[in-house]
Amino acid sequence: MGTTNLSAYNPDLVPDAGEMRFGIVVSDWNNEITWSLLDGAIATLKKHGATSDNIVVSHVPGSFELTLGAQFLAEYDDLDAVICLGCVIQGETPHFTYICQGVTQGITQLNLEYNIPFIFGVLTTLDMEQAKARSGGKHGNKGYEAAVTAIRMAALQREMEK
Ligand code: DLZ
User: Fold this and answer.
1) Which residues contact 147 (CB under 8 A, 6 or more apart)?
2) Would you write out the chain's pLDDT as a tens digit for each of its 162 residues?
3) How far apart are CA 113 and CA 31, in angstroms?
4) How far is 84 from 147, CA to CA, in rounded Å?
5) CA separation for the pair 149, 81 (Å, rounded)
């Protein structure tokens, strides 16, 4: 029960990403976690055909800045999808709640305002142990899931445009 890998998926159901271009915005707060998410996302995009030239990475200070960082990427590049990676760990004050609300609403708004998908790859955990388990530990790597979601949504959009 407690060791379910949340990142398990059937690779045959993931479209080819060879012609797609991706932006990744990653928060450097809790970077022991977020850089593992980044490695996982890049490896998964490449596994499904994306080339290094078509993966653009931008770093921002914290998860609260992910929304604007993602908007910059969407404004200044021609992307099929933007993946947002961060890790917010609950502390002793309500700060956690405000950051989580801010980034969740911000990314939702970007999805509705731009005609490309913005993927929510932000861990919101009670402690560091939970974060480690989801960034390359026993529950997988949220970066894999974010990458697969980006490819699937980009493919869906291409299908609509035909
Ligand atoms: C300030 C802050 C705190 C307390 N905790 C986190 C966190 O757990 N994860 C995270 O990504 N960022 C955190 N930050 C930083 C904010 O996201 C933001 O960078 C600052 O409030 C400056 O806007």
Assistant:
1) 40, 41, 42, 44, 45, 48, 83
2) 445 776 788 888 899 999 999 999 999 999 999 999 999 999 999 999 999 999 999 999 999 999 999 999 999 999 999 999 999 999 888 899 999 999 999 999 999 999 999 999 999 999 999 999 999 999 999 999 999 999 999 999 999 998
3) 29
4) 10
5) 10
Ligand 1 atom closest to Cα of residue 27: 11
Instruction: Pull the structure tokens for residue 106.
Output: 């911000």
Nearest C-alpha neighbor of 36 from the set 140, 125, 151? 140
3-state DSSP assignment of residue 78: coil
Asked whether 88 lines ligand 1 (CB < 6 A), one says: yes
Question: Which superfamily does CATH assign the domain made up of 29-127+137-161 to?
Answer: Lumazine/riboflavin synthase (3.40.50.960)
Q: Give domain limits for the chain.
A: 29-127+137-161
Q: Which of 109, 66, 96, 60 has its CA nearest to residue 84?
A: 66
* pTM: predicted TM-score of the whole model, two decimal places: 0.95
Q: Is 102 in the pocket of ligand 1 (CB under 6 A)?
A: no
Q: Which of 48, 59, 95, 139 is catalytic?
A: 95
